[in-house]
Amino acid sequence: SLTYVRSYQPGEDVNLSGSTGSDLAKQPFGETATSANRFGAQASLRLSSQIHLGGWFGYIDAIAEDDNGAVEEGDNAEILTWSANLSFLDFGKEGAVLSFAGGVPPKATDIDGADEDDDTSYLIEAQYKFPISKNITITPGAYVIFNPNHDDDNDTIWVGAIRTTFRF
Fold this sequence. Notes:
Strand 4 (76-89) and strand 5 (97-111) form a beta hairpin. 2% of the residues lie in helices and 57% in strands. It has 168 residues and is mainly beta.
């Protein structure tokens, strides 16, 4: 599927990336009123009855709507993000799902008159959801973020989690 969203955010409310990715992806012009043309593409493909492949790509063309001294009205910024995932259904047990995903959180790749994100963060995730009973599933998983906040000076972040889901 394809998506397009046109938005306007007043200076104090600018958050182009939904608080993910870098601060520059969130507010490429600081607290200056910003409009944005957002484009997205999403796809999901069933390779077989037990293997699914999916992914998405997002692009934001942001436009400064005011002058603030450092930013001129009409300045542009480009923000990119993407992710891909692969899932194996009924892996090891009926109803279980083994999934792998990876991608790049929102990244400011070009900002008129300002620095953009120099480095690139990568997120890699693995999880295994398996049913304990008809109403309970447990999902152990882990993810790693390389170059957090699109800065290779930042240490890699490793996170493990166990999620339990109860269905009533």
